[in-house]
Amino acid sequence: MIRLLKVASDLFVEELAQKLATVGLGDIRPGHGCVFGNIDPENGSRLTELAELANMTKQSVGEVTSDLERLGYLERVADPDDGRAKIIRLTAQGHHAYRIGRQLIDELEREWGEQFGEERIVALRDALEVVTAQRLRSSAVGVDIGGGHLPN
User: Fold this and answer.
1) Per-residue b/e over 13-28, b at no fewer than 16 CB within 10 Å?
2) Per-residue pLDDT, 140
3) Of 16, 36, 81, 101, which has the fewest Cβ atoms less than 10 A away?
4) CA nearest 149: which of 122, 108, 136?
């Protein structure tokens, strides 16, 4: 099962990367997903929140954040609630990439439905939501998980 999940995930990520490149977002790499997949698109997020949600170290997410900042997708601003902390938020370019990325993920999921059978992809998504619900819920209730929201 581990191998099947890994190969399926790799295939999905590879196809998403190809789609991103096709629409001019080829500088977004799979490793950037730890930020794009977890950032609060409206208010931004603290680095510690992103690291926790991605199940990664602050240092690793910090490197990704710096890369995305250099590429123009993110900016760091002072946290109005804590002057010592920074909020990482999407720039206009970042909001554009975030919206396009979400659309492409949804498109890819539909294409997989057409290719492998919609019932199978729906069942796969349902099973993965059940299997991961507790972990995802404990870290981020209500966070969009790519096409849907966490089940309640």
Assistant:
1) eeebbebbeeeebeeb
2) 54
3) 81
4) 136
Buried b (16+ CB within 10 A) or exposed e, 37-68: bbbbeeebbbbebbbbbbebeeeebeebbebb
3-class DSSP state of 28: coil
- Rounded to 5 degrees, φ, ψ at 83 are -60, -20
pTM, 2 dp:
0.84
The first and second tokens of residue 103, run together, are: 């659309």
Q: Can you give the pLDDT at residue 142? A: 38
Give the domain ranges of the chain. Answer: 2-139
Question: What token pair was written down for 18?
Answer: 């190809």
CB 88 within 8 A of CB 50: yes
146 in Cβ contact with 102 (< 8 Å): yes
Structure tokens at 67: 């890369």
User: Which residues touch 120 (CB under 8 Å, ≥6 apart)?
Assistant: 113
The CATH architecture annotation of domain 2-139 reads: Orthogonal Bundle (1.10)
Dump the DSSP string for 64-91.
HHHHHHHTTSEEEEEETTEEEEEEEEE-
